[in-house]
Design a protein that fits this description.
By secondary structure, the protein is of the alpha+beta class. It has 2 domains: 1-116, Beta Polymerase, domain 2 (2-Layer Sandwich); 117-181. 54% of the residues lie in helices and 20% in strands. It has 9 helices and 7 strands. The protein has a 5-stranded mixed sheet, sandwiched between helices. It has a two-stranded antiparallel ribbon with strand order 6-7. The longest helix has 15 residues, at 150-164. It is globular, with a radius of gyration of 16 Å.
Length: 181
């Protein structure tokens, strides 16, 4: 399913990358994931074009998916075989940089998927600040170790935490990092 969705997005010539559990499999401790998470750069004001084209090709998971997507900047879809697909409608400069830094990784022979960097995955997971996200962050740090670019992570995460008014995320990440590296 992820490969087919990626092909569709590439055919549209849209800027995107895969985030979430599939990216965790690449960078962290492999785990089961039940959905596909995509960061799709729509900018601000043109989301409807993307939403309409996606809804012509994929099923919605909820009633009024367009209204929900416009309000929450996430389009909730599902595949024909009921796999959940969450498409974040990206518009922030950080999200544009995240997509620019993304790269392809061959998950299985002949199945390359375009995923975010390990650093951006840590930023996204820390910002989300849920229990599973911190488990994933620990796995990424353990697996990637000293290869991680911590100044990039800090550079991108600080303004997000300021906007969220939650600087404790930075302290938590620093404690996790010091404990593992």
């Amino acid at each position: 399913m992820a490969q087919g969705l990626q092909l569709f997005l590439q055919e549209q010539k849209w800027s995107f990358c895969i985030i979430g559990g599939i990216a965790v499999i690449r960078w962290g401790e492999p785990r089961f994931t039940r959905d596909i998470d995509i960061c799709l750069f729509t900018g601000f004001g043109s989301e409807q074009v993307f939403i309409e084209r996606l809804l012509k090709n994929y099923n919605a998971r909820i009633h009024n998916p367009e209204e929900f997507a416009q309000k929450n900047r996430v389009l909730l879809l599902k595949s024909d075989d009921d796999i959940a697909v969450d498409i974040a409608l990206a518009g922030l400069p950080y999200e544009e940089r995240l997509i620019e830094r993304s790269s392809s990784f061959e998950y299985l022979p002949g199945v390359p998927l375009h995923t975010c960097s390990a650093e951006d995955l840590i930023v996204l997971k820390a910002f989300a600040d849920r229990e599973q996200d911190w488990v994933d962050i620990r796995g990424i740090i353990i697996r990637q170790g000293i290869k991680l670019q911590w100044d990039l992570i800090t550079l991108e995460l600080v303004p997000l935490c300021e906007a969220k008014e939650n600087p404790e995320i930075l302290d938590h990440l620093d404690r996790v990092r010091k404990k593992l590296i």
